[in-house]
Amino acid sequence: MKKIKQLLLLIAILLPFLFAPAGVLADTNSASSSSNQAADKQSSVAAIKKRGKIVIGTAADYPPYEFSVKENGVSKRVGIDIDLGKQLAKDLGVKAEFKVMNFDSLLVALETHKVDVVIAAMSPTPERAKSVDFSKVYYGDNQDIVINKAEESKYKNLKDFNGKVIGAQNGSEQYDLAKQQMKGAKLKGLDRVNNLIIALQSHKVDGVVMDSTRAKAFVANNDKLKAINPHFKVSGQQGTAVAVAKDSPGLVAATNKTITKLQKHNTFDKVYVPRAGKYMSQGTKQNTVLNYWNYFVRGIVYTLVITVFSVFFGFILGFIFAMFRRSKNRILHSLAVAYIEFIRGTPMMVQVMFVYFGIGEIIQNIPALVAGIIAVSINSGAYVAEIIRSGIQAIDYGQVEASRSLGMSKKLAMRYVIMPQALRNIWPALGNEFITLLKDSSIVSVIGVTELMYQTQLVQSATYKGAFPLFIAMMIYFILTFSLTRLLNYGERRLNRSRQG
């Protein structure tokens, strides 16, 4: 018993450090400096060759640069950027490993050394160059605005959008351009271009800013859309480049060498762009959502894995901190209050990103799935702790006294008298928490975990259909939550029967 208490105390002491601000952790001692240097060395050419693979960050939702298709029943990532990444890996003599996540998370992943390079149709803007280094531009592009074809007579230049709503992808160059040069319009940013196209077709926005290559892809696959060139003024290099972590000159040089070779042989225009167009054309012919049923199946599996593990660990954490909060020990009580209040006072998305990018910078190579489960478990534990505490407090203290008068220890009284009754009382509240957890698992898609919402977004990219994949995902979530509700109701009936018996 004494060892268990010591273990619980150790967990409680260490937990706050997991959620300490990144700056505090960085300034605690010089160890963080050496850690950063070690991380920089991880991204060097020598380290990549020794590791035998280069980790490439991408978004995989941006045809023709990077997107997912089905070929012979097998899902694969294709596009200009995917081909470039494979060639870079080949020139380095290593394998290419692609790590997919939201576009606005890619530079964070690069800075925290989750990936070695980012190849995602990224423009080398001066603002981004402050945080990362860039290769030479490998493919030039203009900036267009996609509009509904029925309204093409209304829009010819930027001034025509005054008083209108303009959409752009969060964290993109297009977002910055619209913000700076379309001040008469209202700017709406979303994480996914697919969602912006849905907003355009449902008239939530009047135009979507994107590069011309991407715009042509959407227009070619949707005859209700039209792309116009409003002539944005672009400073610096115009086009797309490979992003590399700061102070990695060897990797920048190796990347430029690959790009120079490809440009010399005109490989982008002769091979990569036509190949991407071919995949897009095939996708248009077979772009029914049902052809991508295995995407949804894979998403369901990951969603259930996240939910099951998070429920298990969340309940354990909740029970531990419920006991801590009821403890007469001031240290344990204070730690429990701090944990519960802090977790409940911060958004789960921030917690997920902090665990993956923040703690992941200290604990190298933490998988996104593991980081997601840890974050969701910690989040759930705070709510479960309060549910358990309220259930225990609802039990008449006279039952505790009666148990002690029968010779039971506090431990036995808690185990055989208090907790069984408390569990019956809190079962509906626990059920609600578990159902919420199943739905909130979609948040981990921001760090590239391939759960249901993530797979739905891939289907949107591959099929150029916005609303229908979302409808299917919505129905799947309903079936999962309805089934879980039936299961929890069955458990509640069993508990009630045991009480009556």
TrEMBL record:
Transmembrane segments: 300-324, 365-385, 466-489
Domain ABC transmembrane type-1 intervals: 300-489
Signal peptide: 1-22
A molecular-function term among this protein's GO annotations: transmembrane transporter activity
GO cellular component terms listed in the entry, alphabetical order: ATP-binding cassette (ABC) transporter complex
Record keywords: Amino-acid transport, Cell membrane, Membrane, Signal, Transmembrane, Transmembrane helix, Transport
Entries under CDD domains matching the protein: TM_PBP2
Membrane topology reported for the UniProt record: Multi-pass membrane protein
Intracellular or extracellular location(s): Cell membrane
Origin superkingdom: Bacteria
Major site of localization recorded for this protein: membrane
UniProt-listed InterPro entries: AA_ABC_transptr_permease_3TM, ArtM/GltK/GlnP/TcyL/YhdX-like, MetI-like, MetI-like_sf, SBP_3_CS, Solute-binding_3/MltF_N
Gene Ontology annotations of biological process type: amino acid transport
PANTHER family per the UniProt record, alphabetical: GLUTAMINE TRANSPORT SYSTEM PERMEASE PROTEIN GLNP (PTHR30614:SF20), MEMBRANE COMPONENT OF AMINO ACID ABC TRANSPORTER (PTHR30614)
The family this protein is said to belong to: Belongs to the bacterial solute-binding protein 3 family.
Protein name (Swiss-Prot/TrEMBL): Amino acid ABC superfamily ATP binding cassette transporter, membrane protein
Originating species: Limosilactobacillus panis DSM 6035
